Structures are given as C-alpha cells and as structure tokens.
Amino acid sequence: ALGRSAKTLSGGESQRIRLAAQxxxxxxxxxxxxxxxxxxxxxxxxxxxxxxxxxxxxKGNSLVIVEHDxxxxxxxxxxxDLGPRAGIHGGEVVATGTLRxxxxxxxxxxxxxxxxxxxxxxxxxxxxxxxxxxxxxIRGAQANNLKNVDVRFPxxxxxVISGISGSGKSTLMHEVLWPAVRDExxxxxxxxxxxxxxxxxxxxxIEAAYEVDQSPIGKTSRxxxxxxxxVFDEIRNLYAQxxxxxxxxxxxxxxxxxxxxxxxxxxxxxxxxxxxxxxxPSSYVPCEDCGEKRYNxxxxxVLYNNxxxxxxxxxxxxxxxxxxxxxxxxxxxxSLLVDTGLxxxxxxxxxxTLSGGExxxxxxxxxxxxxIGRAQNERIRKMRKPGTTLYLLExxxxxxxxxDVELLLKVLHRLVDEGNTVIVIEHNLxxxxxxxxxxxxxxxxxxxxxxxxxxxxxxxxxxxxxxxxAPFLRDVxxxxxxx
Length: 483
Prior knowledge:
It is a single chain. By secondary structure, the chain is α/β, with parallel strands linked by helices. The chain is built from 18 helices and 15 strands. The longest helix is centred in the last third of the chain and has 22 residues, at 356-377.
C-alpha cells in the first residue's frame, strides 16, 4: 500500500524500495556503486535483482558491487577478492579476474567456498524430530498479514523460518512468539495484545529467552569486546594480584579505564581526545600523554609477561587468547570468539565501530559463555532439561562471508547441542539447509502471504510444489556438479 508506514516494512522490502529509487531511471554511461544490495532478499527476489542489474549493464552502465552473495559473484564479469583474512590479517588483493580465476587461486578463501560449496547437513545427519517431547505451539496468529495460522516449533532443536520478503516471518517472531514468551517468563498473564494470536503453549518448558539482534553492543567508546563478554573484569583481577600491584596497594579498580586513579586523566581513559568542530562532525586525535594506552604511567609499570594492561587492550582477540591461555576464565571466552571468526578484533576496540554481524556474533558468544558457566556449575547437580533457553535470531548471516557463515552454523549447532532451542529467520540457503525443522511462509508477500506453505525437515519442504523456497533448497541439498 502506498500509504503504509516505512517502519512496518521488512528488511527486504526496504532494500528493494531504495534500489528501485536508484535503479529505476533509463540512464546510460552511469557508474553505480552498491554495497550488499542482496541483504534481506529471498533467493527468488535476488534473481530478479540480478536481472535488473544485468539489464543496467546491457544499457552501457558500469556497476561496482560489494557483495558476499554467491549467485552475484557467479554472474559478475570481473571479481576483486580482498583478504586473505579479516582485520590486520587482510587488506590485500588476493585474486582478481573471472570466476574461474578466483576459484583457481590458492590463497582465496572466496575461491575455496565457490569451488567447494558446503554439503548439507555439515554434520552428516540431522537431529531427530520423532523424540521431541515438547513443542512451542502457536494457534490463530493473525498479526499484520498472518492469516490465522497455526504453527509449532520443537524445543531443543534448530528451527528456521523461511519465505520471501514480506511473507510474515518477522511478524511471526517479533509480534507473536517473542511477546508471548516474554510475558510468560515475566508472569504477565494476557499482557500481549489478545487479537494477535489465540493461544501459545509450551512456553512453560522455557526458563529464559534472548532476542539476539544486530543492534550495537554499546553506544560509547567505553564499551569494548573485552568489557562486553566480561573478560576484562578477569584481566583486571589478574593484574591486581601481581606482586607489584600488591606492594603498591593497587586493587582491580586501578586497572579500569573508566575510573579515576589508574586511567590517563588527559583523555579520561579513552586513548583519544575528542575535538569539537563547528559545523562539522567531531574528530578524534591520539592522546599524547598516554600514547593511546588509556592509562597513566604508574599503572602501565605493572607488567604481566612483559605486557602492561594498555598493551593487552591493544591486542587482537586472537593474540589475547594465546597470551591468556593459562587462565581458563579469560582464555576460554576469547577462544570462542576466535572460533566464530572474530579473532581479528582488538580487545579494546570501541563497540560503535563494530558491524551488525560482528555485534551479533559477540552476543552469541556471550550466551555460549553463560552456557559453559552453567554447565560447570551444575556438574554436581542434575543436568538441566533441554530447551530451557530460547534464542531468537533474525538474519544472522547479514554481512558475513561464506566462510564466516560456516563458522556461524557451528556456533548455532553448539548452542543446540547444549540443550537450547534456536529459532532463526533466514534467507541464506546454507542456514536453511542446516535446520532440524523448517517453517516456510508465503506463498507470496503482503496480502498474498501470511500462510504456512510447508513445514518439516529441509528435505520434506524441498518437495513442496507451492513453496517459493523449495526450488532453491533442492539445488543446495543436491549440489550441481560445476564444470
């Protein structure tokens, strides 16, 4: 509808509107620069977008596209692959040329993924649905375009909600499932709008729920990956226990860059000084007093293995994981971050500089860390029942390379292996093909969507003739031999 509020649009709908505004002209000789135009798009809509971009090229225009999408790369005339890895390990042109040139490159991670696509399921088998004892059961969901649908999700399994953009996926998760679970956990009986659904059962089997989105983990430079996953508290305690600290009477607070006493007062522990510019954005310059190390000279004199607390903040997570490998409380969470592909981030990197995908993976590792802590604390007690924690994620693959998607899948599987329930909204076929249970919405968008088209294992959904996801899913489950 032309009068519809923009905030009610799905991610894919918003993306296509922005693209239509830019690509709808009949110009020639134009250079178009696009940054991940396929974000939020279903595979069918993705093909339509690529047809549009191809038509622009045929008219005599040039297109430069930053993209992780496999089909976009396969259609490209020329590819420039950066790497070989991320952060300080990247920044080089690894390979250039046609798709075949990239696939032949031995140093290209992109070439490896294109040449040898993932075989699903990556664990060789799926978790069984026949032995699932509890299900989250939703009856009569009718928010927005949902048409009085009945749907259920198995507890203790990885579930994926698929469907074209605008089919009702976000509505089902964020306006029906999440409010119902939240109200049940907070013991707010009938707190959610009763007209959105008739009944939701099975929530009593859940003890906690987390909505893991791509919102920033912190809005100020005082928030860092180290502080967010709580390892910085352990690092401060370690430095406070060193002989020099005990002799001088330094407590853990001395090693906080947010508290007076140990921090550099010239920059207030920021490492940089903010310069207010009239009529221009503020700029930042390195602090000359501490040399961007955040602490005063006396605090920096306390060394652990010849490294000060300031040196530790400047380490990458990968370096810090190795440096603190002897301390499980520090090394274990950092190793989890390395396993999810975030080893290139600096321990003291300001949170506002992280991408949405990086922020979401940090949140997932935080939940994994909590799960490990709970498991260790409950060794002397009964093991907790499966599915007591529910995780809701929307398109966690946004902004991720194919190699990072593989790492993300391992994290999701690990969460489920620990007895949790994970429900994901996703367009990425690699994630959809990894589901234990798949719910496909559609068949179309808006008024023509909002129905459950198919449900079951990915193999069962792939056989459905109405589902718009099924044709693409069949190709992923049975990879075509590429010449």
